[in-house]
Amino acid sequence: MASGGPGPPLGERLGPRSCSGERLGPRSCSGDRLAPRSCSGDRDRDRDRDRDRDRERAGPRSAPAPGRPLTLEREVGVWDTVLLEPLTEQAFIANLHQRYKHDQIYTYISQVLVSVNPYKKLPLYSSDVIRAYRSCSRFELPPHVYAVAEEAYRAVREHNSDQCVVISGESGAGKTEASKLIMQYVAAVSGRAKEVNAIKGQLLQSNPVLEAFGNAKTHRNDNSSRFGKYMDLEFDFKGDPIGGLITNYLLEKSRVTAQQPCERNFHIFYQLLTGADIQLLKSLKLQRNVENYDILKQGRPLQYETLDDKRDFQVTRRAMDILGLTPDEQQAILRVIASVLKLGNVTFSPVNNIDGSEGCVVDNEYDLQDACELLHTDTASLQASLTSHTLDGRLDAVTVELSAAEACSARDVLARALYSRLFAWIVMRINETIKPKKHAKRKVLGVLDIYGFEVFERNGFEQFCINFCNEKLQQIFIQLVLREEQEEYVREGIEWTPVDYFNNAVICDLIEKTNQGILSMLDDECLKPGHGSDEGFLSRLNAACSNHPHFSVISDNSSPAHCFRLKHYAGDVTYDVTDFVKKNVDALSRDLSLVMYRCDLPLMKALFPEGNPKRVTLRRGTSASAQFKISLGALMKSLAAKQAHYVRCVKPNDTKVANEFDSELVRHQVRYLNLLETARVKRVGFAFRQSYESFLARYKMLSLHTWPSWCGLAAEGVTYLLRDLPISMAEYAFGRTKLFIRSPETVYELEEYRRDRLEELATLIQKTWRGWRQHRLFEAMRKSQIIIASNWRTWKAKEELRAMKQRRRTEWAARLVQRAYRGWKRRRFLLRLAHHLPSESPLCREWPRAPPPCQHASALLYKLYHKWRCHKYRMRFDQTSRNRMREKVTSSIIFKGRKASYPKSIGHPFLGDYVRLRQNSQWKKMSAQSNDQYVVFADIINKIARSSGKFVPVLFVLSTSSMLILDQRTMQIKYRIPAPEIYRISLSPFLDDIAVFHVRAHSPTRETTVEEPNLPGCLMGGGDSGSKHRKGDLVFQTGHVIEIVTKLFLVIQNATGKPPDINIDTEFEANFGQSDVVFSFKASGHPDMPPGQIRIIRRANKMEVIL
Ligand SMILES: Nc1ncnc2c1ncn2[C@@H]1O[C@H](COP(=O)(O)OP(=O)(O)O)[C@@H](O)[C@H]1O
Ligand SMILES: [Mg+2]
User: Fold this and answer.
1) Sign of dihedral through CA atoms 1013, 1015, 1016, 1020?
2) What is the pLDDT of residue 1092?
3) Predicted confidence (pLDDT) at residue 30 exceeds the cutoff of 70
4) What is the CA 43 to chain-centroid distance, rounded?
5) Cβ distance 958 to 937 under 8 Å?
6) Residue 854's pLDDT is what?
7) Ligand nearest to the CA of 227
8) What is the per-residue pLDDT across 780-825, written as a single tens digit (0 to 9) for each?
9) Pick the catalytic residue: 15, 172, 460, 1032?
């Protein structure tokens, strides 16, 4: 994958560290060194803001100032003693004291946390404080056990490596509290899924149960753990708890039968007696009074006020419920506890047998009976096995009676065995519940809370084992923190000045060395026939170890004679060897094992498996010390395989009171815990080292040189990587195989850079993946869209096609209907027309209205019909009517639309002979001569004098051959013009009745003579001179002007075969004999002129006719 594209060098991108100079400056200035970073980019600022918010939320740092944010500025003294100046024991203790006075109980020595028991409740453990430590790095907030827990948990989650927190310190120094706080923190910050919460609940609830059965009140601690506990919290790859495993170490079982003054037995006895209800007590055959039970009375005077057993019993019962212990199992556990109480009350009295041997009898059989009933066994067999002992011989078994003391001892052994095995069973049962259900890969965070170093008035076998355990822990601490670290610097070639410290390996050797160690000698003594004796053991010891610098033989009177003294790393302890052998062998008689196994209580079979008759073995069991040594060896191995975090608990006083700081007591602990040496080593040493390969593997994404892969030498790659980062060169050193980083802050910064870069890379992956997913989504959507669109288009096209077909069908239907309708309409019209034809008169205008489609046909039909009826009408005409019609038609052809007076003439019949000339006898005579007997027209009309324009009435006659002007009185022909001589007739378009007859110029216009009566074009004047002369064109005015012109037209056409020219105009020329005159017609519009009246004005060559 790409490294996030081109950009500025990674170092620049990560932003300069403003405070690196100060941070790396002289270590005395704590404030400067840890000043908050101011300019490491927006993201850092955001994170800082978040942290500030968290810090504010985190609430009070100490009791009197609620609401004060958690901040280093408020720290008193030096919160990391590596920064202490001068680094002396005095200053170290004074610093702890000063901080303790201000309730600042935690102090760092680099990564090691020193915790001083406050013996009071401090407001340091709220969920807000957890949140603050969750979101901040260790060096931003005051020292806290939560910071250690966070570091270990973060390493499990992010580095995927096994971690452990080793909590050490004296009894009562606060180890158990610290371990609980660590578990509480991990539970609070890990996943919250329902399943995870259930597991967390179970892991947390293991504490109250184990404390009830394994803790007791001692001089030093009201809730002292009387067993060692190592708990592995197991996580899945996400960092969610998936289960756990508890390993318990050597329960101080002697406490069951004997306690020191002012100490108590295990809590559960008191809890049961005070907390159980009456029914439960009755079922367990118990009474509430603690005083009734011998094993609870030994530590008198007792103070109960500090413990609330009643409440604690409820807590224990609830925890057992949560851990999945069934009611039957719980009942069985309580029965065993009750039976131990009852057994403790059983006493024996010595009796002398007949054979002189000492025997014993049970004094209080009731208690023994109760115990047997509780364990579901018969009293006789238990009584027998308590008071006698079977010796297994080669051939047969021999029963030997026990003395009262031996019986008491057997009783105690049984009670202790019952209790310690019950405890081991409970741990096993809890482990069954909390063991991871998934078989996935898991990582482990171990928390070791083992009993602290103990020095009592009388120190027995248990104290010896406990202190040996603490020696071993000190040894591992020395090995990892002091020796190995220093050795490593030398090995890696780092410049180093060795720091001296006390190495307790010599004490460990004294105790555990094979064949020569104290434990070997004890085992050797126990191997002696009859298990040897404590005295034998002591004399062996004194003989073998008297010269050892850490062993003292007690020869003075200061201590009892059966003691030896060991110079432990934590101080001198005098051990009383009494019962060492017995406790080491810890042999429960076979008789008792058998009886216990035979109990009807199923739990007893699990507690005493060796009592099974089928498992007869004559082999001796492993001694307690050997078992302890083996389990400690395994523990040390397990711790060495993990990355360790240390919490060193310090006890401020021996009186368990708050605000009391016993400097001497603290000095003692500071010395034996090697705290000062630790500070010295840490001060000059390096906080962090890692092989080049793994360093490169973890941080290679921080440089473009090494990301995504580096092919060269790992050390070279680391050099490039560091060069690209804003880290001062003083902060790291190159060893032979490892890189050393001086301050933890630098490691934190590296981690922060890595986290930021991983976020960037994760963003890149997310971005790419989201892009790919969106693209796929888009592709799918596009495909869908195409499918949808194509389907939709198909559907739409189909719809359109369907609509089109529908439309076409509709249109076709409409057309069909229309056609049919029109046809019907036409048919109806035609039928109606056929049946109701209008009148046959040509004048009739009626015609049925045709429907639109028949308009044209109707018009044609009308025309046809009209023509037909006209034809029919005409067919009915006689010759006269036909002629008359011909005249009318001709007049229409000539005048229609040309002459204003024409319409008036239409209705007027062309009578022709208005003066009855045809009947005139004179005319008859005259006309016969000139061949004018066929009169076409005759009337008195006005001839207009050409010179004056005056009207002269004359008789105008038109015959079929000529035009005649006769004197109206004398009937003499004045002019006779043959029809062919007239070539044109001129008229005005107005209403006037004037017509000009143009006579041909070559035709002599002369008066007719008798001799030449029919000369065409001659005027036959009856004038006085009788001379012939050309007169020119004639001008007439008559009411029948239309009729005259029409008839003349026809006459000329008939005579010549060619019609005359009809000129209708407002101006035209006329020939007046010698001269041409222009006729001009004007419509004056003068109001004085009556309609039809005309005025003629002759002006030179112009005749003006004004209408
Ligand atoms: N952080 C603490 N805050 C308040 N009291 C504490 C704290 N640590 C220890 N104590 C007190 O000291 C007592 C002894 O502590 P514990 O953890 O049992 O000691 P250890 O396990 O070292 O013997 C506790 O019962 C408690 O009263
Ligand atoms: Mg404890």
Assistant:
1) negative
2) 67
3) no
4) 22
5) yes
6) 86
7) 2
8) 999 999 999 999 999 999 999 999 999 999 889 888 888 888 888 8
9) 172
Q: Which of 355-369, 372-386, 770-784 has the lowest mean pLDDT?
A: 355-369
Ligand 2 geometric centre to CA of 451 (Å): 6
CA of 81 to the centre of ligand 2 (A): 26
The C-alpha torsion from 601 through 605 and 608 to 609, rounded to 10°, is 170
Rounded to a whole number, what is the largest CA-CA distance in the chain?
233
* Backbone conformation region of residue 956, classed left if phi is above 0, alpha if psi is from -120 to 50, else beta: beta
User: Residue 962: pLDDT above 80?
Assistant: yes
Q: Are 887 and 1050 in contact (CB under 8 A)?
A: yes
**pLDDT tier, 63 (very low <50, low <70, confident <90, very high otherwise):** very low
Confidence at residue 256, expressed as pLDDT on a 0 to 100 scale:
93
Q: Which of 586, 511, 574 is nearest to 545 (CA)?
A: 511
Beta-bridged to residue 563, according to DSSP, are 576
With a 6 Å cutoff on the Cβ, whether 169 touches ligand 1 is yes
- Least Cα distance to 1072 among 1034, 1026, 1100 occurs for 1034
241 in Cβ contact with 461 (< 8 Å): no
Q: Is 329 exposed, middle or buried (0-12, 13-18, 19+ CB in 10 A)?
A: middle
Kindly give the distance from the C-alpha atom of residue 606 to the centroid of ligand 2, in angstroms, as a whole number: 28
Centre of ligand 2 from the C-alpha of residue 214, in Å:
10
Ligand 1 atom with least separation from CA of 169: 22
Tokens matching residue 641: 């395989």
Q: Is the CB of 177 under 6 A from ligand 1?
A: yes
Alpha helices in 192-241 (DSSP H): 194-214
Q: Using an 8 Å Cβ cutoff, are 725 and 674 in contact?
A: no
Angle between the 714-723 and 692-699 helix axes, to the nearest 10 degrees?
A: 50
What DSSP state is assigned to residue 561?
A: T
| Contact (Cβ atoms closer than 8 angstroms) between residue 75 and residue 709 | no
Q: What percent of the chain has pLDDT over 90?
A: 36
117 lines ligand 1 (CB under 6 A): yes
How many DSSP H helices and E strands does the chain contain? 37, 31
Query: How far apart are the CA of 534 and the centre of ligand 2, in A?
Result: 30
User: Residue 424 CB: number of other CB atoms within 10 A?
Assistant: 15
Residue of 107, 117, 673 to test ligand 1 pocket, by largest number of atoms within 8 Å of CB: 117
Q: Which residue has the tokens 């739990």?
A: 603
> Tokens 């909590």 label which residue?
167
φ, ψ (nearest 5 deg) of residue 111 = -85, -10
Helix (H/G/I), strand (E/B), else coil: 1002: coil
Strands 1034-1037, 994-999: parallel, antiparallel or unpaired by DSSP? antiparallel
Pairing, β 388-392 against β 1075-1082? unpaired
Interacting residues of 463 by C-beta distance below 8 A, sequence separation 6+: 454, 455, 456, 573, 575
**Cα Rg of the chain, angstroms:** 74
CA–CA separation, 304 and 336 (whole Å)? 24
Mean pLDDT score of the chain, rounded to an integer?
83
DSSP classification of residue 402: P
Q: Which H or E element spans position 646?
A: strand 643-650
pLDDT tens-digit series, residues 709-760? 899 999 999 999 999 999 888 889 999 988 988 877 788 788 889 889 989 9
Residue holding tokens 């934590």? 570
Tell me how crowded residue 868 is: count the other CB atoms within 10 A of its CB: 12
172 lines ligand 1 (CB under 6 A): yes
Q: What is the pLDDT of residues 266-278, one digit of tens each?
A: 999 999 999 999 9
Ligand number with the minimum distance to the CA of 219: 1
Is residue 176 annotated as a catalytic residue, yes or no? yes
Task: Quote the distance between the C-alpha of residue 530 and its chain's center.
Answer: 77
223 CB less than 6 Å from ligand 1?
Answer: yes
Binding site membership of 678 for ligand 1 (Cβ less than 6 Å): no
Residue that wins the pLDDT comparison between 797 and 171: 797
Q: Are 1082 and 1089 in contact (CB under 8 A)?
A: no
